[in-house]
Specification:
globular
Amino acid sequence: MPVVEATVVVPVPPELAFAVSQTTAPVRYRWDRFIRRQYFLDAATTPARGVRTFTRSRLGASMVSEYVSYHPPSHVGMKMVRGPWFFEVFAGGWRFAPAELPGHTVATWRYNFRCRPGWLRPVAERIGVWLLGREIRRRIAGYARGCADPVVLAAASRTLPGPQG
């Protein structure tokens, strides 16, 4: 199964880096230009294992995904429940780890996928690696900008437990 991955070091601690990654509309749209619209389904209001979300990309494709793991501040994983016809499988995971420089975080985002139909898979997956690789790099660059945006950081900080949240 093909995998695409992007990594960036951001100038915030892992707890805040994770919180930025989980911001919701309208704050999320400040940094995540891939998403045109996103919201929780099934009356959920916060992310957690088993929670489903609807996402429409700026390219017009829609996907319903489900959190398969949610472990602040280290990692989160999602899988496609329903999505574009050409994906047989699509999943993503984000990991956050302290960087060597204190107060910084290494953020790694990874997608894995399988295309259909099977007879077209070899070509479709090469195209998918190129296209999704480009999108994940753009998306993580936007995330890095979000980790330096005072509005995004303020909103993400409010979701943290303790005195800062």
